[in-house]
Structures are given as structure tokens and as C-alpha cells.
Specification:
Helix content: 40-55%
Number of domains: 3
Strand order of the largest sheet: 2-1-3
Order of helices and strands: HHHEEEHHHHH
Oligomer: single chain
Radius of gyration: 21 Å
Distance between the termini: 37 Å
Low-confidence stretches: 1-41
Mean pLDDT: 82
Largest sheet: 3 strands, antiparallel
Strand content: 5-15%
Number of strands: 3
Length: 199
């Protein structure tokens, strides 16, 4: 990984952090890629210490903008914000006053595509066709769920396995894109967490 690419991601993380959080460089100036990598390594979070499931849930939360999910770039802990109760459940606070990174939900079409891929990928073509039809038009998420749970209970577990595996991979990639974890850690996670085979 080029030092310049790593530096770019890390500056994004610094940019998100509090303006009160000072960046101090002591000793000799940074000299070359090796010093740069060593310096930025100190700003990385440990992927093993982050609740990837929570990140995945936050990225999938399409409810509304009266509540939002945020992550602390120093600890990896998530916070839940509401417009009337802030993050402590008592004191309203504006989002831009917080020293946290906002987790914007991914567009609904990302999650819609998971349903399409599942319907197209299962070996039971009859069930696949019925699930595909359920995805046509408005209300696709609800119809897909109803079709799956009411007519194909044997496919519920495989669907959850695919959906959750993809959600976790997206969560880890989001962390890498935000400069919170190392790209190598994200790639290693993807290698170790392959999508399950469909029945």
C-alpha cells in the first residue's frame, strides 16, 4: 500500500476528529514513507476491538434523520443520537458539536441488490422466481420478507447468512474508507469472511 494512499485516509480521520484534539509531532521531522507509515499507525483502530455488527446495523438503518449513529474515532465505540435527547438521553446537542464521525446509512438499493442476488442465486428456481416477483414495485422489502417467511421458511437461514455476511464486509470497508482501520486489515477480513454458498 502506497504511503500516499495511507496518508490520505488518515488525514480524513484527523479531519473528522475534534478541532480541540491537537496533532503534535515531537522530535525530528518525518522523513520518507517509513516514518510516515509509523506515524499514521498510531491513529488506526484495532479492527478486533470494534463491534462490526453494530457498524453494519448502523449502515442499514434507513429509519429517519431524527436519530443517527456515530462512532468515536479514538475508541471505535458507537453512540446513538436523537434530535431531542442528544447522545446521553438527556441533553440535546447538535451533531456538529460532537467529536464523533457520523455513520450515514448506505442507500436502500445496496440492500435491495442483496435480495435480488439471493433470489437469482438459489437453486430452487420456483422459489427464486416468486421471490423475484415480490421485489417488483413499491414495498419490495416487505413483500420479499413476507414471501420468504410465509412460503419458504427453509430459506430463512441461508438468506440471513448471506445478508449478514455482506453487511459485515460493508461495515469493515466503511471503516477503511473513513481511514479508521488499515486497508490490509479490511482485506484480511474479507478473505477470512467469504460469502456463504447458497442452497
Amino acid at each position: 500500500m502506497a504511503a500516499r494512499a495511507i496518508a490520505h485516509r488518515q488525514f480524513r480521520a484527523v479531519r473528522h476528529a475534534s478541532h480541540r484534539r491537537e496533532l503534535r509531532i515531537t522530535g525530528e521531522p518525518l522523513d520518507g514513507a517509513r516514518d510516515l507509515l509509523r506515524f499514521y499507525a498510531g491513529w488506526m483502530l484495532d479492527l478486533d476491538a470494534i463491534d462490526v455488527e453494530e457498524i453494519a446495523n448502523a449502515l442499514a438503518d434507513q429509519t429517519d434523520y431524527e436519530h443517527r449513529w456515530l462512532i468515536d474515532p479514538r475508541t471505535g465505540e458507537l453512540a446513538f443520537w436523537t434530535s431531542d435527547l442528544g447522545i446521553d438521553g438527556e441533553n440535546p446537542v447538535e451533531l456538529d458539536e460532537l467529536d464523533l464521525i457520523l455513520i450515514d446509512p448506505l442507500p436502500s438499493y445496496v440492500w435491495y441488490q442483496d435480495m435480488v442476488d439471493f433470489a437469482d442465486g438459489i437453486s430452487d428456481r420456483g422459489a427464486g422466481e416468486r421471490l423475484r416477483r415480490a421485489l417488483e414495485g413499491k414495498g419490495a422489502f416487505r413483500r420479499f420478507k413476507n414471501e420468504l417467511y410465509q412460503r419458504h421458511p427453509e430459506l430463512i437461514s441461508p438468506w440471513h447468512a448471506l445478508r449478514d455476511a455482506r453487511a459485515r464486509i460493508r461495515a469493515v470497508q466503511w471503516l477503511a474508507d473513513e481511514g479508521l482501520i488499515d486497508e490490509e486489515a479490511a482485506q484480511r477480513f474479507q478473505r477470512d469472511h467469504r460469502e456463504p454458498a447458497l442452497p
